[in-house]
Amino acid sequence: MKVIHIDELDGTANDVDHDTWRSRRFVLADAGVGFSFHDTLLRAGTETEMWYANHIECVYVYQGTGTLVNRETGEEFPLKPGTMYLLDKHDKHTVRAETDIRCACVFNPPVTGREVHDENGVYPLLTATA
């Protein structure tokens, strides 16, 4: 059993801070459970382009408002507490945060914590031992 409070992640290697977002990673690939689990903040007034070409991501918004844009179809979806979205087709997407958005995210395969978005918003596929 593993129990972690989010405050325990602050300032550690599992606390990844970027211009438009901050991700605190509770569970990573080295846990060996087949997924990673993150608490992510998307900062108010920002726009973040992402494309998880190597991962499936499920996101549950529990605080804040914004818009999710499918860049391939142009469809827009409102984000507010209680909204879940699943990027099951490796969808190229943009999140526009009107307010700070807090969400819980699950990745499969799990991320290692060393990934950085490339110029296309893609995380490389890394393994726990790579």
TrEMBL record:
Provide one Gene Ontology biological process annotation: ectoine biosynthetic process
Q: What superkingdom does the record give?
A: Bacteria
The EC number on file is 4.2.1.108
Keywords (A to Z) from UniProt: Lyase
Q: Does the keyword Lyase apply?
A: yes
The reactions it catalyses are: (2S)-4-acetamido-2-aminobutanoate = L-ectoine + H2O
Q: Which residues form a coiled coil?
A: none
Which pathway does it operate in?
Answer: Amine and polyamine biosynthesis; ectoine biosynthesis; L-ectoine from L-aspartate 4-semialdehyde: step 3/3
Q: Which GO terms describe its molecular function?
A: ectoine synthase activity
Q: Which family does it belong to?
A: Belongs to the ectoine synthase family.
* NCBIfam families membership: PRK13290.1
Q: What does this protein do?
A: Catalyzes the circularization of gamma-N-acetyl-alpha,gamma-diaminobutyric acid (ADABA) to ectoine (1,4,5,6-tetrahydro-2-methyl-4-pyrimidine carboxylic acid), which is an excellent osmoprotectant.
Q: Kindly provide the name given to this protein in its UniProt entry.
A: L-ectoine synthase
